[in-house]
Specification:
Number of strands: 0
Largest sheet: none
Structural class: mainly alpha
Oligomer: single chain
Order of helices and strands: HH
Shape: rod-shaped
Helix content: over 70%
Radius of gyration: 22 Å
Number of helices: 2
Protein backbone atom coordinates (compact mmCIF):
# COMPACT_ATOMS: atom_id res chain seq x y z
CA UNK A 1 0.00 0.00 0.00
CA UNK A 2 1.44 3.36 -1.03
CA UNK A 3 1.45 6.32 1.37
CA UNK A 4 2.74 9.01 -0.96
CA UNK A 5 1.45 12.50 -0.44
CA UNK A 6 0.24 12.62 -4.05
CA UNK A 7 -1.95 9.53 -3.46
CA UNK A 8 -3.90 11.25 -0.69
CA UNK A 9 -7.03 13.32 -1.07
CA UNK A 10 -6.47 17.10 -1.11
CA UNK A 11 -7.89 17.58 2.38
CA UNK A 12 -5.72 14.76 3.76
CA UNK A 13 -2.58 16.15 2.15
CA UNK A 14 -3.33 19.60 3.62
CA UNK A 15 -3.70 18.04 7.06
CA UNK A 16 -0.41 16.20 6.62
CA UNK A 17 1.31 19.44 5.65
CA UNK A 18 -0.16 21.21 8.69
CA UNK A 19 0.87 18.40 11.04
CA UNK A 20 4.39 18.37 9.60
CA UNK A 21 4.68 22.13 10.06
CA UNK A 22 3.41 21.87 13.65
CA UNK A 23 5.93 19.12 14.45
CA UNK A 24 8.72 21.21 12.97
CA UNK A 25 7.70 24.29 14.94
CA UNK A 26 7.60 22.25 18.16
CA UNK A 27 11.05 20.79 17.45
CA UNK A 28 12.52 24.25 16.93
CA UNK A 29 10.78 25.41 20.10
CA UNK A 30 12.44 22.62 22.08
CA UNK A 31 15.84 23.52 20.59
CA UNK A 32 15.36 27.20 21.41
CA UNK A 33 14.37 26.38 24.99
CA UNK A 34 17.50 24.24 25.32
CA UNK A 35 19.63 27.15 24.11
CA UNK A 36 17.94 29.50 26.59
CA UNK A 37 18.45 27.03 29.47
CA UNK A 38 22.11 26.63 28.52
CA UNK A 39 22.50 30.40 28.32
CA UNK A 40 20.98 30.97 31.75
CA UNK A 41 23.09 28.19 33.26
CA UNK A 42 26.40 29.41 31.87
CA UNK A 43 25.56 33.01 32.73
CA UNK A 44 24.73 32.05 36.33
CA UNK A 45 27.89 29.94 36.63
CA UNK A 46 30.03 32.77 35.28
CA UNK A 47 28.40 35.25 37.63
CA UNK A 48 28.98 32.90 40.59
CA UNK A 49 32.63 32.41 39.66
CA UNK A 50 33.12 36.17 39.47
CA UNK A 51 31.60 36.64 42.90
CA UNK A 52 33.27 33.75 44.69
CA UNK A 53 36.73 33.46 43.17
CA UNK A 54 37.88 36.96 42.44
CA UNK A 55 41.60 36.57 43.16
CA UNK A 56 42.58 33.93 40.58
CA UNK A 57 43.21 35.04 36.99
CA UNK A 58 42.16 31.70 35.45
CA UNK A 59 38.80 31.73 37.23
CA UNK A 60 38.14 35.35 36.34
CA UNK A 61 38.88 34.65 32.66
CA UNK A 62 36.70 31.54 32.73
CA UNK A 63 33.90 33.48 34.42
CA UNK A 64 33.94 36.22 31.78
CA UNK A 65 33.95 33.64 29.00
CA UNK A 66 30.96 31.90 30.60
CA UNK A 67 29.13 35.22 30.89
CA UNK A 68 29.73 35.99 27.22
CA UNK A 69 28.80 32.45 26.18
CA UNK A 70 25.60 32.70 28.24
CA UNK A 71 24.64 35.94 26.52
CA UNK A 72 25.30 34.41 23.09
CA UNK A 73 23.12 31.38 23.85
CA UNK A 74 20.34 33.60 25.20
CA UNK A 75 20.48 35.72 22.09
CA UNK A 76 20.36 32.65 19.87
CA UNK A 77 17.42 31.22 21.80
CA UNK A 78 15.36 34.40 21.80
CA UNK A 79 16.06 35.49 18.20
CA UNK A 80 16.33 32.21 16.30
CA UNK A 81 12.96 30.69 17.27
CA UNK A 82 10.65 33.52 16.08
CA UNK A 83 12.65 33.80 12.85
CA UNK A 84 12.32 30.08 12.09
CA UNK A 85 8.67 29.96 13.18
CA UNK A 86 7.72 32.74 10.75
CA UNK A 87 9.66 31.03 7.96
CA UNK A 88 7.87 27.71 8.58
CA UNK A 89 4.46 29.40 8.71
CA UNK A 90 5.21 31.18 5.42
CA UNK A 91 6.27 27.89 3.81
CA UNK A 92 3.15 26.18 5.14
CA UNK A 93 1.01 29.00 3.72
CA UNK A 94 2.73 28.71 0.33
CA UNK A 95 2.28 24.93 0.26
CA UNK A 96 -1.34 25.23 1.32
CA UNK A 97 -2.13 27.77 -1.42
CA UNK A 98 -0.31 25.82 -4.13
CA UNK A 99 -2.43 22.66 -3.56
Amino acid sequence: MSTKLSDKKPCESNQLIQFAAQRTVLAYERNSMAAIRTGFSSFALGFALLGLLEDKFFYITTAWLLLILGCVFLLIGFVYYPFIKNKIKKTEFDLHNSS
